[in-house]
Write a structure and sequence with these properties.
The chain is an alpha/beta fold. It has a single domain, classed as Ribosomal Protein S5, domain 2 (2-Layer Sandwich). The chain has four helices and seven strands; from the N terminus they run βββαββαβαβα. The strands form two sheets. A five-stranded mixed β-sheet has the order 3-6-7-5-4.
Length: 180
């Protein structure tokens, strides 16, 4: 038996609350950037790819050296200040959609949702790094009249797929300087 309960007020008779299932997310978990220093560190890492409206910045995270048995302190060089901001070496993602380029909150939120949804499809092929997707120019308001139209969402999604496709590391390709 579920813990869902029926709403007993007029107009809601017979509706259940608490039974809605969350969507199933495929692929690895992506950590989200939350603090200003995390965003600043990822932006300082450099631009990996660009489209006409978006830029993808990346700060590569290097795993700390392994711990010796019986020691509480890890062996190896100390973490850089940027590396210390990220507790886990994983794929991190943040979205920056400034008011300057998307005036309405509805539009900013729709673009952020598209950024996080598209990133889930590419999460398995992104390197362990902190990524920030930044909106760098405005979508033409004359072409996209509605603040959250299907046409705008489709255009944003197509451009984000191009952005992430340029940034992924293809399987089977060796990275320069890496040893097998």
């Amino acid at each position: 038996m579920t813990d869902a309960r029926l709403i007993q007020s007029p107009g809601y008779a017979g509706r259940r609350i608490g039974t809605r299932k969350s969507p199933v997310v495929q692929g690895p978990e992506v950590q989200r950037l939350k603090t200003r220093p995390q965003f600043q560190a990822a932006l300082a890492g450099g631009t990996v790819s660009r489209t006409s409206h978006f830029a993808l910045h990346r700060l590569t995270l290097v795993p700390r050296a392994t711990q010796s048995p019986g020691m509480n302190n890890p062996v190896g060089p100390a973490l850089s200040p940027e590396q210390a901001l990220f507790g886990v070496v994983d794929v991190w993602l943040g979205a920056m959609v400034p008011k300057r380029w998307a005036r309405r909150a509805v539009t900013r939120n729709a673009i952020k949702r598209q950024i996080y949804n598209v990133s889930m499809h590419f999460a398995g092929s992104l390197p362990c790094a902190a990524h920030v997707v930044r909106l760098r120019s405005e979508f033409d308001r004359k072409h996209f009249i509605s603040a959250s139209s299907d046409a705008l969402k489709t255009a944003v999604r197509a451009e984000l797929e191009q952005l992430f496709a340029r940034a992924v590391i293809p399987l089977g390709v060796e990275v320069a300087g890496a040893t097998p």
